[in-house]
Design goal:
With about 300 residues, the protein is of the alpha/beta class. Helix content is about 45%, strand content about 10%. The chain contains 10 helices and 8 strands. The strands form 3 sheets. Strands 2-1-3-4 form a 4-stranded parallel beta sheet, sandwiched between helices. Strands 5-6 form a two-stranded parallel ribbon. The protein has a two-stranded parallel ribbon with strand order 7-8. The chain is globular. The structure holds zinc ion (ZN). The site of zinc ion has 7 residues, from loops.
Length: about 300
């Protein structure tokens, strides 16, 4: 390095060193901020915003379905010890409880970022009414909502680790750029489609449907483990026949049996539309790549031009 360059750099290095020494960082021995994320999309957001500064633990193991997650004592301890816990109140009751008991002052509730929609999707007055109690938690399937969550996570990380506040904010802006671009692709990709209705296995796609002008008809409720009633199954079968639905969507993390049976019954294909509640074990995908392949699937199934 030239002497001249050193002369320019030295004061900068000194400033950087001083800032670290006087910082208010609660980073652990590894120098990283420990964050617990309640399920995959929140892990994704936290990793994108935190970059190398954070170590993120997902409470759900790869390939598992996150609704009704049961926490081990070790996981409750992880929540208790974490610098920050990122969760979505109303989605995983045991996580809600552990955070209420041990981490209220060190948590970000993604459900508070923007108001949640009601958990029912009336298709038409008096027809296929899905009367579900409670709010719909599946906000991450609207990329603009995920960007809003990222901003809040960045703010909280900036409080926990004040030395790197600007870095977290910059990462959140970059992520917003990516998610806005994804939103634009969805808008353009689903603007001209012959079909507008998606028949899905659980009621996860309400926010995606609302944002991009689709109508969701779900075989089961807000939780994938709910068994559909015979009456509900008959209703959806009639609907799919009447409306000449060509594709019934199923999911990666739950059994496709009901969706496949229904598809057989009405002569439709069964295809994967991933609600992104988690990644499959060993998956190299991330939120954006799965959302892109969902878009390709939707465009094919709905005959979009
Ligand atoms: Zn779900």
């Amino acid at each position: 390095m030239s002497k001249r360059l050193l002369a320019v750099l030295a004061p900068l290095l000194l400033v950087a060193g001083t800032a670290t020494a006087c910082g208010t960082s609660s980073a652990d021995a590894s120098g990283k901020v420990d964050v617990v994320a309640a399920f995959y999309p929140l892990q994704y957001v936290t990793e994108q915003v935190g970059g190398d500064r954070v170590s993120v633990t997902n409470l759900v193991k790869p390939g598992a379905e996150p609704h009704d997650l049961e926490l081990s004592p070790k996981q409750v301890a992880d929540i208790t010890d974490a610098d920050l816990a990122v969760y979505l109140n109303g989605f995983q009751p045991e996580v809600d409880e552990a955070i209420a008991d041990h981490a209220t002052d060190r948590s970000v509730d993604a459900a508070k970022v923007q108001p949640l929609s009601d958990g029912y999707v009336p298709l038409e007055e008096g027809e296929l009414h899905q009367d579900e109690k409670g709010k719909d938690p599946h906000i991450w399937l609207d990329p603009t909502r995920l960007a809003a969550i990222a901003d809040v996570v960045a703010n909280r990380l900036g409080e926990v680790d004040a030395d790197h506040k600007a870095e977290y904010a910059a990462n959140a802006r970059t992520l917003r750029g990516t998610l806005d671009a994804l939103d634009t692709e969805y808008k353009a990709g689903l603007a001209n489609c012959q079909q507008k209705t998606i028949v899905v296995s659980h009621n996860a796609f309400g926010y995606l449907a609302n944002r991009y002008g689709l109508t969701q008809v779900a075989i089961t409720g807000l939780t994938p483990e709910d068994e559909p009633s015979a009456g509900r199954l008959a209703e959806v079968t009639t609907f799919a026949r009447t409306n000449k639905v060509k594709t019934i969507f199923f999911e990666t993390l739950v059994s496709p049996k009901v969706a496949e049976t229904l598809a057989d019954e009405v002569g439709a294909k069964a295809e994967v539309l991933d609600p992104l509640e988690g990644l499959e074990d060993g998956s190299k995908d991330d939120y954006v790549s799965v959302m892109r392949s969902n878009l390709t699937t939707l465009r094919g199934a709905l005959a979009c031009s």
